[in-house]
């Protein structure tokens, strides 16, 4: 495993840890502030940060005719439609259960990448994906509705729809990273997301007061998650296969459950701990031993 590939694996792992924390922050924030307001402020903060950093990142652009379609499609998938579904999902399900659903993303990406990017996965990888998903389902079946999850079934369904959006986003980014740096793509996401969510935020009810905890969560979402999480994930996609990078998403339910337990007081039963072990096994099996990433990859179906 060469140095660039090793860095890519470390980058996507760090992104997953950040995203696991984001479920907690989003859950806390939407308990005080309307979901669309939270997402708009998150996008706005990210955009301002990228504007400040633009002189250093603007060189990572090699625009080709027609790229605007891919760039617009990428942003519509995520953050636009993705966050519409996810912001509503955490209102009805717990942060831990929302995190569990994210483990369906690798299978969705693997199937779509098979048809669009012509990526091939070994039987070992497919087995790993399936084992991880079984672990997630096991964890879900051993979860109970409660104060943190008033309608877990609806919330988990909305989160699954968010994963469909994330799968489309992942494949578009895989194609675009051939000509754009990770941070340029992340900046474009923030700019388009800010414009997209502005009217939705204006149509929502704004709180008369907000706690410092909620403010801190929104700042965390806007700066650390938007810049750090997406930047690291997009960087990984430029050096390892889309399905391999997405395979790390299987760790999201594990870290989210652990953080939910530590920060929100959620508790894990024995069966959930066993399921966590199954998820780890699935992630281990789904990773390639000797990744070989060609410099040129076949264009996606939307290219």
From TrEMBL:
GO cellular component, one term: plasma membrane
Statement: the UniProt record of this protein carries the keyword Repeat: no
Cellular localisation: Cell membrane
Domain EamA, chain residue ranges per copy: 8-140, 154-285
Membrane topology, as annotated: Multi-pass membrane protein
Superkingdom to which the source organism belongs: Bacteria
Keywords recorded for this protein, A-Z: Cell membrane, Membrane, Transmembrane, Transmembrane helix
Spans traversing the lipid bilayer: 12-30, 36-56, 97-116, 123-141, 153-173, 180-203, 209-233, 245-264, 270-286
Name assigned to this protein: DMT family transporter
């Amino acid at each position: 495993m060469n140095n660039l590939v090793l860095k890519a694996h470390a980058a996507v792992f760090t992104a997953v840890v950040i995203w696991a924390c984001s479920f907690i922050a989003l859950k806390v924030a939407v308990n005080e502030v309307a979901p669309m307001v939270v997402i708009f402020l998150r996008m706005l903060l990210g955009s301002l940060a990228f504007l400040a950093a633009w002189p250093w990142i603007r060189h990572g652009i090699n625009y080709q005719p027609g790229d605007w379609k891919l760039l617009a499609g990428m942003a519509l998938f995520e953050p636009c439609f993705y966050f519409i579904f996810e912001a509503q999902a955490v209102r009805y399900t717990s942060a831990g259960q929302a995190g569990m659903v994210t483990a369906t993303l690798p299978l969705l990406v693997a199937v779509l990448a098979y048809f669009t990017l012509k990526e091939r996965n070994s039987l070992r990888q497919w087995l790993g994906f399936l084992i991880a998903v079984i672990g997630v389902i096991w964890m879900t079946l051993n979860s109970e509705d409660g104060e943190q999850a008033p309608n877990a079934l609806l919330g988990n369904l909305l989160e699954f729809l968010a994963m469909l959006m994330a799968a489309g986003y992942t494949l578009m980014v895989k194609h675009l990273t051939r000509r754009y740096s990770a941070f340029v793509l992340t900046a474009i996401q923030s700019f388009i997301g800010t414009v997209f969510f502005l009217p939705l935020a204006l149509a929502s009810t704004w709180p008369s007061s907000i706690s410092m905890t909620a403010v801190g969560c929104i700042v965390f979402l806007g700066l650390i998650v938007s810049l750090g999480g997406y930047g690291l994930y997009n960087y990984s996609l430029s050096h390892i296969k889309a399905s391999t990078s997405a395979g790390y998403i299987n760790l999201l339910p594990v870290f989210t459950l652990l953080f939910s337990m530590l920060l929100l007081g959620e508790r894990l039963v024995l069966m959930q701990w066993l399921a966590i072990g199954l998820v780890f096994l699935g992630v281990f099996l789904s990773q390639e031993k000797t990744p070989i990433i060609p410099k040129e990859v076949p264009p996606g179906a939307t290219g």
